[in-house]
Amino acid sequence: MRNKPRLRSPKERAKDFHEVSMGYSPEQAKEEASRCIQCKKPQCVTGCPVNIDIPAFIKLIVSGDPKGALNKIKEKNNLPAVCGRVCPQEDQCEKMCILGKKGEPIAIGYLERFASDYGTPSPTLPLAKGERERSDRGGKVAVVGAGPAGLTCAADLAKAGYNVTLFESLHGPGGVLSYGIPEFRLPKKIVNNEVEYIRSLGVDIQYNMMVGGIFTIKELFAKGYKAIFLGSGAGLPKFMRIPGENLNGVYSANEFLTRINLMKAYLFPDYMTPVRIGKNVAVIGGGNVAMDSARSALRLGADKVTIVYRRSKEEMPARIEEAENALEEGIEFRFLTSPTRIIGDEKGWVKSMECQKMELGEKDESGRRSFIPLQGSEYIMDVDTVIMAIGQSPNPLIGNSSPELSREKWGGVIADPETGQTSIPGVFAGGDIVTGAATVISAMGAGKKAAEAIGRYLGQSMKDEV
Amino acid sequence: MNKILLKRSLAPQVGLIELEATDISKKALAGQFVVLRIDQHGERIPLTIADSNPSKGTITIVFQKIGASTRLLDNLKQGDSILDLLGPLGRPAHIENVGTVVCIGGGVGIAEIYPVAKAYRKAGNRVISVLGARNKDLIIFADEIALGSDECHIATDDGSLGRKGLVSDVLMDIMAREKVSLVSAVGPTIMMKVISDITKTSNIKTYVSLNPIMLDATGMCGVCRVTIDGKVKFACVDGPEFDGHEVDFAELMSRQKLYLDEEKKAVERHCSSENPDCRCKT
Q1: What pLDDT is recorded for position A131?
Q2: B17-54 pLDDT, tens per residue?
Q3: Collapsing DSSP states into helix, strand and coil, what is residue A213?
Q4: DSSP string of A390-418?
Q5: Does residue A325 contact residue A299 with C-beta atoms inside 8 Å?
Q6: Which chain B residue has the Cα nearest residue A250?
Q7: Looking at the partner chain, which of A170, A248, A348 has a beta carbon nearest the beta carbon of B216?
Q8: What is the DSSP letter of A262?
Q9: I need a labelling partner for A125 at 20 to 30 A (CA). Which of A61, A313, B9, B32 fits?
Q10: How crowded is residue B251: how many other Cβ atoms within 10 Å of its Cβ?
Q11: Does B191 have pLDDT greater than 60?
Q12: CA B147: distance to chain centroid?
């Protein structure tokens, strides 16, 4: 039997922003790790976008060495404490686990989390001398965006001996890990520890630097950077383009979550950024961002929070674990429903929302069943806050400042899936800026591949110079 | 960290700060803005760049003490530093040579029209500046703007300086007197609306610089969305300057009221003399 992680009770956790899951105790971790049969040809590794040697790190946990396990993971993954918490393991490594064929797969995610929580040296220790020395062997590389893709690419390049500068437009690191994913799912202390590790590799992180504004791609090359990685993510919020979306009380999930996570609006007025939450909140969408928004709204004191999703439960893109957590905490779900307009009061604030019922049709190109609006099924839902969590598009600023960077019609930067090479020589891209909003780990995988490709590119261009 | 090299008071509720900002000063164009954060607890405050000096590596910002954040900003002294400074943000003002341009600044917007007026003049236009405020104490940058304009008019509500009346009255006089090719206005939203209504009837191209609530100011959150000619735009990246005849001003004014209650709470928490934790000494 798979070991269940320790979760705080729904009643207790729904009132604060502390972490919901407490992970495994050392005993639980050892027991779970002992279930691994150490396959000769481990399929789990093929399911991991960064190919962590999973059986090897699990074996080290069995032998009571979480630090060794962590080091094993860090050979491939620079953000294990993050991935152990937010990766969709059920669709990746754990999906491939042979034990899953007849019973339950090994809880690889929780073991990864255990290794990083118990194997990390105290983060308050000063960095060892020499750790921060920057190598100039391989030349200067600029990485744009300190999210999962950029952090991974920067760390791998630094490990390979390149002098890496990471430019971040916000005032802190992490990208979506900081502004998007809430504290109760991914404590910011964890993110900061991981970033400290990456800085210890010699990566110079410069905040408040919006590439595309302060420097263009051309100007970065002129400053002596030999290669550039673009990992600026999918930060442009989508709206439904229905009437009433600009009423007061309608948020994009990005705005709502940024206020809470990055700006700590849940500690207002001590922290000076406000967020206003009504009594009756509707969150539109069925992904992880929708779950995060709904659960945050509940923690801010909303009486009732409803997730409104146009397809059925089976089609929801959110992780099952997160949807279950949300349900346990008291979030209501209204499936096969989509808003058609938002209605305001005389002062310009949301007072209700008109919805339409849907029914499912045939499978569409995405493999999910399509939805068909039921004419005449419109009805009014009383709400005072609406949060649009229907997706994000790639951030357009860098592309707008560099017309020679080829992009898809929907805004994604066109890059080789194996190398990240874009239409501009020496410029690579990966993560959500290429794929549109996807997962943390796929962005990390893209950052990793690009770091290798940048190494090959710079090796080649150095040879050419000689 | 960005150091404050100069800090002075321009008017009873208006302050000026010159900040160390080497890279931004080289890039900043008229009409662009920065976002700053005073400290770890601070909001991201968007402020228009009133002036930039690339050789010195500085930018100048002018702010009105309205809420808690701007009061705390006003508390800082020369030699202090702010924690974060991001910019330049937004699209620069549309500057072209069209003939006669009337540049209108209202209140603290006078500081914001200053670089725009300079840029129009540099592009070869005849620039008529019109500055307005409630009273003479609130008329700032008048000498600088007069120096950079072909004509400079002042209007105050109480008549304590220049003409008694509104900037729109001055604009109507100018329009009656000569051909105006373009109007550029920065100030309170209601002022920009009135100006746009006047010029629309005479079909004079009018640019206004909008100041909706912002958060990240890099296009990520959408709180600054405004409706322009029926389409939703983000003022932080698509603006802040838009065609005044296409702006839905009523919606903008409603959205500017989003956090009025919270703003009061923040002032009580951070700036009240009865509060022992008061972080500002005003």
Answers
A1: 47
A2: 999 999 999 999 999 999 999 999 999 999 999 999 99
A3: coil
A4: S-EE---HHHHH-TTS-B-TTSPBP--TT
A5: no
A6: B223
A7: A170
A8: I
A9: A61
A10: 17
A11: yes
A12: 20
Strand, coil or helix: B219: coil
Beta bridge partners of B59: B19, B52
Cα–Cα distance, A195 to A150 (Å, whole number): 11
Secondary-structure percent of chain B, ordered helix, strand, coil, rounded to 5: 30, 30, 35
Please indicate if any CB of chain A lies within 8 Å of the CB of B263. Answer: yes
Residues A264 and A297: beta-carbon distance below 8 Å: no
Burial (CB count <10 Å: 0-12, 13-18, 19+), residue B165 = middle
- How far, in Å, CA of B162 to CA of A278, rounded? 48
Residue A214 contacts B, CB cutoff 8 Å: yes
The amino acid that residue B208 corresponds to is V
Q: What is the rounded CA–CA span in Å between residue A322 and residue A318?
A: 7
Torsion sign (Cα): B261, B263, B267, B270: positive
- The owner of tokens 């900043």 is B28
Rounded to an integer, what distance in angstroms lies between the CA atom of residue A395 and that of residue B222? Answer: 12
pLDDT in the model for residue A121? 62
Are residues A427 and A228 in contact, defined by beta-carbon separation less than 8 angstroms? yes
Alpha-helical segments (H) within A364-413: 397-401
| A277: DSSP letter | -
Cα dihedral across residues B59, B64, B67, B70: positive or negative: positive
Residues B181-197 have a mean pLDDT of 97
**Hey, what are A292's tokens?**
């995060």
pLDDT at A120: 76
* Enclosing H/E stretch for A232: none
Task: Specify the amino acid at residue A402.
Answer: S
What is the number of residues in chain B?
Answer: 282
CA atoms within 13 A on the CB side of B92: 13
Give the pLDDT score at A368.
83
Residue found by looking up tokens 């929302």 in the block: A353
- Count Cβ atoms below 10 Å from residue A137 Cβ, excluding itself: 10
- Rounded to 5 degrees, what are φ and ψ at A337? -140, 140
A97 near A43, Cβ under 8 Å? yes
Inter-chain touch B43–A272, beta carbons under 8 Å: yes
Instruction: Take residue B158 and report the two structure tokens written for it.
Output: 């109480």
Chain A: give the shortest CA distance to residue B51, in Å. Answer: 17
**pLDDT of A191:** 93
Q: Do B43 and A273 touch (CB under 8 A)?
A: yes
Q: Is B257 on the interface with A (CB under 8 A)?
A: yes
Tell me the sheet residues that pair with B58: B20, B53
pTM: 0.94
Instruction: Flag residues of chain A having pLDDT under 70.
Output: 121-138, 462-466
Q: Which amino acid is present at A375?
A: Q
The ipTM (two decimal places) reads 0.94
Report the C-alpha gap between B119 and A379 in whole angstroms. 54
Backbone angles phi and psi of B20, in degrees to 5: -70, 125
Q: Which of B43, B222, B254 sits opposite A237 (nearest CB)?
A: B222
Residue A331 is encoded by which pair of tokens? 């979030």
Residue B110, both tokens: 């006078």
Q: Is A149 helix (H, G, I), strand (E, B) or coil?
A: helix
CA gap A348, A330 in Å, rounded: 29
Q: Answer left, alpha or beta for residue B187, where phi above 0 means left and psi between -120 and 50 means alpha.
A: left
The helix or strand, by DSSP H or E, that contains position A444, with its residue range, turns out to be helix A440-465
3-state secondary structure of A331: coil
Residue B275 has pLDDT above 50, yes or no: yes
Residue B226 vs residues A1, B209, B229, B252: alpha-carbon distances, Å: 55, 12, 10, 6
Torsion sign, CA atoms A265, A266, A271, A277: positive
pLDDT for residue B227 is more than 60 = yes
Q: What is the pLDDT of residue B172?
A: 96
Predicted confidence at residue B278, as pLDDT, reads: 62
Instruction: Phi first, then psi: give them for residue A17, nearest 5 degrees.
Output: -105, 15
Please state the rounded mean pLDDT for residues B204-226.
Answer: 97
Q: Is B205 on the interface with A (CB under 8 A)?
A: no
